[in-house]
Design brief:
mainly alpha, Amino acid/polyamine transporter I, 73% helix, globular
Length: 437
């Protein structure tokens, strides 16, 4: 879930001198901001892949998640705080590689979050179609038609265009409510855990294959660096005078990481231990999230009868709107730069906004009706791009810039290697799966 009021592509504070401010930022506020940024609808699909793969690959990879997530985000702090002026991520890339390369990076950022938006759109279409059929409102699954997705997108785009201010206020509260509800579901499922799953030990080759398939989605569930630029700038303005901002920032990253780790892994393990593997395999084919699956499993009694699907839909909607703000703002920013730099023309921002909305609506609709696998989109398209920005690019900068040699630490080499693995892990896992089948 992206910080909805923060455009990750803008660089407005990049050239401001550092100045001390009277009101100090709150560590607790920023910990929960990082937490809320990472927890989105993407984690609803993580238990599906984990459930198909089995409990042991998930167990093994969970052991290594804390250092991987912590040191990768810590590298972002190092990158941002190394600037004399206040620069966000984009501004830092522009500084080290130039404006042209920075523009290319922004383009890839846009592509990454656009595919993320596509995954949420497909998820909404599939889960709403199945839920309407489940309630008996429709005789068939309308997700198989072309018009349900169009209706969903028109409603969402209309809400975003005409009710933006209200949406931002509602979603801030709703995001925290969804986190509480997901935690409540995790606790509710404890009596349904099947601990016998730990007794089933798969072959080593199967464990390796499934680790490769799980790791992209698992890493995506711990990504909060899009909101870190604003945090670093706030702390540098407040604490750079007494040279404590770096220590405070890394402490926030540390606490955000373990909090996310406990929350996400508790949710995933609770889901995986409560639902048979065959049900996860069916959900993978149907493109539905784990809450819809759990809701159908507990459809006879209990608070999850139907409510789980509604919570899942709410999570998809909030994540869709949050990512949409970032995608629309970034695409507008890119169009304005192209028009001003290449065509030397002034731009009417209202016209650009209308073009962006039409473009996004048509492309999202076209991709939604193809019903691509949501898990495949996250694992094969979104995660590799995000991994490049989070795990690879900062470390490359540390090693090609002599002024940043103090950040050349062995752990950063490990972060870089994890990033390279993430670029290819999903496809490699599929390939090995076919070879050992």
């Amino acid at each position: 879930m992206i910080d909805m009021e923060k455009n990750v592509f803008e660089v407005p504070p990049s050239n401001y001198e550092i100045e001390e401010v009277k009101q100090k930022p709150s560590a607790i506020y920023w910990v929960f901001t990082m937490f809320g940024t990472a927890v989105g609808a993407g984690i609803l699909y993580l238990p599906i892949q984990a459930g198909v793969s089995g409990i042991w690959p998930l167990m093994i990879i969970s052991i290594f998640m804390f250092p991987v997530v912590y040191f990768s985000h810590k590298a972002i702090v190092d990158l941002l705080i190394s600037n004399r002026l206040l620069r966000d991520y984009s501004g830092s890339i522009n500084k080290h590689f130039g404006i042209l390369f920075g523009f290319i990076i922004n383009m890839f950022f846009f592509i990454a979050w656009f595919f993320c938006l596509t995954a949420y759109s497909i998820g909404l279409n599939e889960n709403i179609g199945i839920y309407l059929e489940y309630l008996g409102i429709t005789a068939d699954n309308l997700a198989r038609t072309t018009y349900l997705s169009f209706i969903i997108l028109i409603i969402l785009f209309g809400m975003i265009k005409y009710c933006r201010a209200i949406l931002l206020k509602i979603m801030s509260a709703l995001s925290m409510l969804l986190i509480i509800l997901l935690f409540g579901i995790s606790v509710y499922l404890i009596p349904h855990w099947n601990l016998n799953l730990f007794l089933v030990i798969p072959k080593v080759s199967d464990i390796i294959i499934h680790i490769l398939l799980i790791i992209p989605l698992l890493v995506m569930s711990f990504v909060f660096f899009p909101a870190m630029s604003a945090m670093v700038i706030a702390y540098r303005r407040s604490y750079d005078v007494d040279q404590t901002s770096e220590k405070r920032l890394k402490r926030i990253v540390f606490h955000s990481t373990w909090l996310l780790l406990v929350f996400v892994l508790f949710f995933v393990f609770s889901c995986v231990l409560s639902v048979p593997q065959e049900a996860f395999q069916a959900a993978l084919k149907q493109n539905i999230n784990c809450l819809t699956l759990i809701s159908m499993k507990f459809n006879e009694a209990g608070p999850l009868a139907g409510i789980g699907t509604l919570i899942g839909l709410a999570a998809l909607i909030t994540s869709f709107i949050g990512v949409f703000f970032a995608v629309s703002e970034s695409s507008r920013h890119i169009i304005i730069i192209i028009c001003r730099s290449w065509f030397k023309k002034k731009v009417d921002k209202n016209k650009v906004d209308n073009v962006v909305i039409i473009f996004l609506l048509l492309f999202l609709w076209g991709l939604t009706i193809t019903n691509l696998s949501v898990i495949a989109i996250f694992s094969a398209l979104v995660t590799p791009l995000v991994a490049f920005f989070l795990y690879v690019l900062p470390i490359v900068i540390f090693y090609i810039k002599p002024s940043l040699k103090m950040y050349r630490k062995p752990i950063n080499i490990v972060v870089f290697c994890v990033g390279i693995l993430l670029l290819f892990s999903f496809e490699l896992g599929k390939l090995l799966g076919m070879l050992f089948k």
